[in-house]
Amino acid sequence: xxxxxxxxxxxxxxxxxxxxxxxxxxxxxxxxxxxxxxxxxxxxxxxxxxxxxxxxxxxxxxxxxxxxxxxxxxxxxxxxxxxxxxxxxxxxxxxxxxxxxxxxxxxxxxxxxxxxxxxxxx
Length: 122
Known about the structure:
alpha/beta
C-alpha cells in the first residue's frame, strides 16, 4: 500500500523540505503540493490523496476552512493540520475536520508513527 500524500504550505522551502523527508519514508508517495487552501482543494479533487498534510495559517483560504471542504469532497483522506507553535493549535472540538493537529516543531517526529498507523501497523 502506498500513502498518496498532498503537502500544503505557503512556504515553498518548507514544502520542499517536507517532500524530501517524506520521500525517504517507506510507502509514501508525494503526489502533489499546494501553496494555499484554494489550491489544496483543487489538488485534492484531482489527486485523491490518502493523506493531506496542511498548514493552518495560509493566504486565500486557511487550513481549517480548506480541510472542511476537502473532508467533505474526499471523506477517506486523512487530514493532518499543523501550525507554527503549540499555543496556536485550535481547541479540540467536534467541528474540527482534522485527524491530527500538531505544532510544526513536532511534525517530523510525529509523521513516521502516523504513517505506520495508516499502513495498518500499531
